[in-house]
């Protein structure tokens, strides 16, 4: 079989259709290249924006972790102080009971009317806790880090 070969057209042979076709092809290629360049630039900007957002979020996260740790330490210090105050209140209540019993004995023996102070009932003050309250705490603030 004989194959038909066409002579290569350079666009300068005077055929107006060929020149117009080559010109459209060239414009389309330039347009495609420009579109691809814009697409690459847009993607690069998105990556840079996301990288910046990751950095900002990491900084915010580390600040939150530091804040949580500081508040946790402050809470533990306050809770420790509260435990000491509760123990002291119990000790002082016991001492007051003991002194009141001595005053009652003195009143009974001597016959003098002695003013015996009342011992406050911890059940009457609903805001006073009778046992230390232990918070439910996460094992670590680091568990929130990814």
From TrEMBL:
The keyword Transcription regulation appears for this protein: yes
Superkingdom per UniProt: Eukaryota
SUPFAM superfamilies, sorted: Leucine zipper domain (SSF57959)
Sorted UniProt keywords: DNA-binding, Nucleus, Transcription, Transcription regulation
Ranges of compositional bias, category Polar residues: 1-12
Molecular function per GO: DNA-binding transcription factor activity; protein heterodimerization activity; transcription cis-regulatory region binding
InterPro entries: bZIP, bZIP_plant_GBF1, bZIP_sf
Compartments reported by the entry: Nucleus
This protein's GO CC annotations: nucleus
Protein name (database record): BZIP domain-containing protein
Organism per entry: Carpinus fangiana
Lineage: Eukaryota, Viridiplantae, Streptophyta, Embryophyta, Tracheophyta
């Amino acid at each position: 079989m004989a194959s038909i070969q066409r002579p290569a057209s350079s666009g300068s042979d005077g055929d107006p259709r060929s020149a117009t076709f080559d010109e459209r092809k060239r414009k389309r290629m330039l347009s495609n290249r420009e579109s691809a360049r814009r697409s690459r630039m847009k993607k690069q900007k998105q990556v840079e924006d996301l990288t910046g957002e990751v950095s900002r979020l990491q900084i915010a996260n580390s600040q939150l972790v530091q804040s949580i740790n500081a508040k946790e330490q402050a809470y533990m210090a306050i809770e420790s102080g509260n435990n000491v105050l509760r123990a002291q209140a119990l000790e002082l209540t016991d001492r007051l009971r003991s002194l009141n019993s001595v005053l009652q004995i003195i009143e009974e023996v001597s016959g003098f009317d002695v003013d015996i102070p009342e011992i406050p009932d911890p059940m009457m003050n609903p805001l006073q806790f009778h046992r230390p309250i232990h918070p439910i705490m996460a094992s670590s603030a680091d568990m929130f880090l990814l």
